[in-house]
Amino acid sequence: MPQSRVSAAAASKKAYEQLDAPEPVQAAKDLIADLLEKSKANKVKNDKDRLESYYRRNYKDWFDIEKGNFGIGSQKNQLSKELQQEILQWIEKNKSS
User: Fold this and answer.
1) Does the keyword Membrane apply (predicted)?
2) Which residues form the domain of 80?
3) pLDDT for 93 beyond 70
4) 16-59: pLDDT as tens digits
5) Which of 19, 26, 70, 86 is the one with CA 20 to 30 A from 33?
6) Structural domain tally of the chain?
């Protein structure tokens, strides 16, 4: 091996040996603890967002049908006025989805 490679390898080995391993491990533990804390703090919001996303993906067609001729306002529909209003509000809120 050329002298420069040996020197670089020796310097690398020496730097590695001087590395204080507990510091990076503690830093990782601190990072994980911070991320878990943020996750717990946002759990309710994230759960609500996931549920809303699920509804938008899977029930938009049903809500559109309810709004149409066979749904809200028809005699066949047994939904309460309050529920009908909530459905209309949901449709308005999620139009672009």
Assistant:
1) yes
2) 45-97
3) yes
4) 666 655 666 888 889 999 999 999 999 999 999 999 888 888 87
5) 19
6) 2
What is the b/e burial string over 27-40, where b = at least 16 CB atoms within 10 angstroms of the residue's CB? eeeeeeeeeeeeee
* Token pair in block for residue 63: 């809500």
> Is the same domain home to 37 and 49?
no
User: Do residues 51 and 57 touch, judged by C-beta distance below 8 A?
Assistant: no
**Can you spell out the DSSP letters for 23-92?**
HHHHHHHHHHHHHHHHHHHTHHHHHHHHHHHHHHHHHHHHHHHHHSTTSTTSTT----HHHHHHHHHHHH
CA distance 39 to 35: 6
d(CA 11, CA 20): 16
